[in-house]
Q: What sequence folds into this?
């Protein structure tokens, strides 16, 4: 049997680190099992879904490297939902309800004040045909509830193990609103049936939905897919992911210059028993991916860990890969190999390119020392050994060594107190600019 997975975002916003994690886990599991990965846009909410967000989600997924085998939009699927609606209605699994929002709210409050669970009382099931006709004559349109079997629904969850949800304590869910539009549940199940989805992997906030979805699958005469519910992400302090950490949208990560592979490396392992390691390619993330290694406990997402991974990925990135994203006119392999160990995000390379090409204002504490050192600079253009030759000469002739020798030279040549290896930097800066900076000039 071919496996088929889906990632089903609602295009009512940009992808967030939490849903990107679900996309990645679905994609990895699909690839691991040789199956298919479907991108399903849950765009039935016409007021909140936009084309811009739908495109943004696709752009973000492509940026992460998570290509999909098929794209489906719920807004194209109205007929399939109507057919399912008619079937459930004909089978007596949907019943019309006429309560207004206020009436329902009143019922709820009354139940709560009597310390009863706020579960829908099914009073609409008692309505006679005359009462229904009277409501219709008043201009009320019904919303439709799914008649739940009051049973315990069980499944074996790939993350949570054996799960049991007692549907007796749940309200019959509204599947169709009074304006005729279906809410999330019915389209989601109908799509999972029609697209032959074999595995539904989503956030653990959907556990109780899954119980009622299983009942809807069965009511539609369809086979029930497998499920995995992934615990939600928490902030580094164990609290909810907060605004304090920034918006945490993929779009922002991309604009901040983070590498997609640092995000993939982190999100594929966070919350699992495997260590998070920097990986440069999705193939390496795929290797060793196993959903059963995810734990039931919430995982902590720390933006500092992401930056740290990003730096590690850049430190090992070959020129072949860096050259396309570096975007610095004239910067070549020598430059990249020299500075890659000193950046956290690719954008930081620009500051080192500025150090190499100038203008740089040297940091000068002792001009006399620098002037004397400049006289000892080896003749001709700077090569790989020039720095060593030069600093040996300065040590010998001027009697300075260690930090007292290297720091003033670094500060004069780069305007910085730390940075890449100076033997390489001297070659990149070149003789002319080095002499000017040693003379205290901005060059
Ligand atoms: N659009 C739903 C959500 O984003 C999909 C949930 C699901 O995977 O079924 O929560």
A:
């Amino acid at each position: 049997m071919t496996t088929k997975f889906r990632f089903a975002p609602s295009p009512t916003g940009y992808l967030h680190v939490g849903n990107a994690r679900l996309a990645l886990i679905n994609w990895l599991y699909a690839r691991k099992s040789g199956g298919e990965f479907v991108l399903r846009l849950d765009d039935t909410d016409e007021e909140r879904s936009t084309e811009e967000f739908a495109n943004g989600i696709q752009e973000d997924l492509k940026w992460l490297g998570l290509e999909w085998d098929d794209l489906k939009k719920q807004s194209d699927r109205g007929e399939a939902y109507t057919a399912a609606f008619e079937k459930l209605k004909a089978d007596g699994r949907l019943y019309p309800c006429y309560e207004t929002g206020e009436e329902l709210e009143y019922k709820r409050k009354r139940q709560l004040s009597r310390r009863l669970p706020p579960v829908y009382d099914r009073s609409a099931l008692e309505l006679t045909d005359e009462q229904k006709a009277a409501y219709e004559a008043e201009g009320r349109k019904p919303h439709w509830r799914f008649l739940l079997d009051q049973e315990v629904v069980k499944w074996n969850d790939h993350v949570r193990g054996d799960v049991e949800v007692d549907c007796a304590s749940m309200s019959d869910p509204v599947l169709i609103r009074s304006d005729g539009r279906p809410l999330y549940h019915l389209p989601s199940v109908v799509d999972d049936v029609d697209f032959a989805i074999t595995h539904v992997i989503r956030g653990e906030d959907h556990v109780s939905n899954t119980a009622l979805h299983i009942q809807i699958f069965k009511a539609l005469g369809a086979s029930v897919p497998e499920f995995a519910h992934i615990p939600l992400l928490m902030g580094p302090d164990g609290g909810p992911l907060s605004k304090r950490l920034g918006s945490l949208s993929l779009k922002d990560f991309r604009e901040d210059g983070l590498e997609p592979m640092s995000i993939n490396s982190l999100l594929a392992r966070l919350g699992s028993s495997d260590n998070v390691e920097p990986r440069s390619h999705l193939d390496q993330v795929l290797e060793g991916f196993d959903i059963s290694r995810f734990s039931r406990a919430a995982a902590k997402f720390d933006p500092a860990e992401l930056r740290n991974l990003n730096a590690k990925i850049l430190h090992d990135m070959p020129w072949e890969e860096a050259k396309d994203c570096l975007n610095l006119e004239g910067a070549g392999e020598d430059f990249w190999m020299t500075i890659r160990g000193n950046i956290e995000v690719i954008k930081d390379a620009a500051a080192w390119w500025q150090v190499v090409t100038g203008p740089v204002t040297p940091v000068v504490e002792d001009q006399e020392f620098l002037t004397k050192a400049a006289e000892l600079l080896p003749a001709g253009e700077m090569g790989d050994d020039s720095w060593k030759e030069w600093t040996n000469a300065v040590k010998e002739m001027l009697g300075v060594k260690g930090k007292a020798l290297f720091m003033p030279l670094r500060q004069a040549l780069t305007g910085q107190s730390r940075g890449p290896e100076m033997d390489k930097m001297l070659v990149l800066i070149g003789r002319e600019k080095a002499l000017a900076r040693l003379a205290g000039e901005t060059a």
